[in-house]
């Protein structure tokens, strides 16, 4: 067992007056204020019955109170289940049941999306009311969060992330990207995703402020970078594309030193455009199971290794494997990763955990290769996975829902190239009726998050399958001309 002071407690002691969170309207909270608000929230939640070890779901927009709530639950020692606010009622209900959640903390705007007997309004706590509260110490081996990620079987699974996973991820990132007293990290990614959540922890561990945005507003973010001292931003390709368009003929100031680009392989034309505009793009490879970044390009190689996700962060390890054998340079195989930021497994999924983790090595299911210098190039973000605007979309999950429609006999979902989102899901439907008569859009919106709803529907007499009845998705892809 390795314990340490609660990270926010320590940070508030070291640099109480330094900026912790900066909002677009110039409202600023110091680390001391963030600590006081978090202890007040912790006391409030404790009075509502939340205690150490409880599984507590949180559903909130990217607002200051979300950060406060994350820290407050850490201070109590509850396990946080951060809910994607874009999910449907049925998807949320599944996660609450599967995760054995005892209480849900939410912003009132999401009240109609959640059906749970113990709901606590996130805005019911008066943060200005100062109360005494003693945060518990952090045990690096204790689970801090369970974040659900879509599964290839059609059912999401909860990734267990410990405080140690977050601690090593933050330290590995700093050793790769460097850390400067003037650093300011812009956060517009959802904090219910690991990419956004990881920035919350880096802020208190590093002692640097978050510039928090509730949505991706390209003009507000452009202003933050140009005028408000932001040095680092985490983004996905669709964000970078819009920012480059907004940048036009301008150039970012010299203090902006890193556009950390994740969410899947970036289109080469986009990377070349960023290079032309002298935007410092550092591609990164990671996933929920690795607490965000795992392998990231560094400053010395950002231009020479365009398209690469760099090398594993310190002290991570990475192998390219095929049929149990490690492959030499420039051969494509499955990416396997190992390190202290890698999850210990999936909540209540012993069989899947055993299948994915062997002797600490995680089988990512992603394909890639290492070049002669040991730099990672990701070829595909998982077999069959669709990445739409940085969101992971699994065809099997959509198929599972659509097969519940009374007139759908069979269905196959694949990704179609889209100039804005990278990919969007489309569905091939086997039915006794034309797809336009099935009202599949309304059915899908009732059961799926908006970004998972197929953007096109195609009639097909029979889905292509092999002798084992496995769907041959590449044949469906060929019908799209891709």
TrEMBL record:
Asked whether the keyword ATP-binding is assigned, the reply is yes
The protein here is known as 2-succinylbenzoate--CoA ligase
Which Gene3D superfamilies has this protein been placed in?
3.30.300.30, N-terminal domain of ligase-like
Query: Function of this protein?
Result: Converts 2-succinylbenzoate (OSB) to 2-succinylbenzoyl-CoA (OSB-CoA).
Q: So where does this one cross the membrane? A: none
Residues forming the AMP-binding enzyme C-terminal domain are: 397-470
Q: Any idea which UniProt keywords this protein has?
A: ATP-binding, Ligase, Menaquinone biosynthesis, Nucleotide-binding
Domain AMP-dependent synthetase/ligase positions: 9-347
Which family does the record assign? Belongs to the ATP-dependent AMP-binding enzyme family. MenE subfamily.
Q: Which PANTHER family match?
A: LONG-CHAIN-FATTY-ACID--COA LIGASE (PTHR43767), NONRIBOSOMAL PEPTIDE SYNTHASE PES1 (EUROFUNG)-RELATED (PTHR43767:SF1)
- What is this enzyme's catalytic activity, as reactions? 2-succinylbenzoate + ATP + CoA = 2-succinylbenzoyl-CoA + AMP + diphosphate
Pfam families recorded for this chain?
AMP-binding, AMP-binding_C
GO molecular function per UniProt: o-succinylbenzoate-CoA ligase activity
EC class: ligase
Organism expressing this protein natively: Alkalibacillus flavidus
**NCBIfam families the record matches:** menE, PRK03640.1
